[in-house]
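Q: Structure tokens for this one, please.
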Amino acid sequence: MTTVAVDKPLTPSRATWLVIRREDKLNDDDKSQRARLQAQEGAIAEAIALTQGLTDLVRQRQPGQLATWLERATASGLQAFKSFANGLRADYEAVKAGVPLIGSAGPIEGQINRLKMLKRQMYGRAGIGLLRQRVLRPP
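A: Here is the predicted structure, written as tokens:
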């Protein structure tokens, strides 16, 4: 009996993941599925190119390329990218200054998530005193 390999179903979130994932982190099946996506014509190919252009720009921390990408996005026939580019252009200096920064809000978001979880667990049972005790002296 012959086994035929079948690609994972291409959901919108999986397609997004394939497009923005680094090439060296993809396995062979993912690479072939990404290549088929990139081979599409029209709006899909344009959206993929713009998305990969922006992710490369941010990953390589190249704020000098931001203006070029914004012009490409604005000139594209895709309304979502035009709107996104206009939004970035509205606060251009802040976006440009943020591109070369190294950092992640992950640790902060993790602490906020933990605090919210504790508050939900204690809903209706205690005030700030118990919350302070649980946050400062975790079990």
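A few notes: The chain has a mean pLDDT of 86. DSSP finds eight helices and no strands in the chain.
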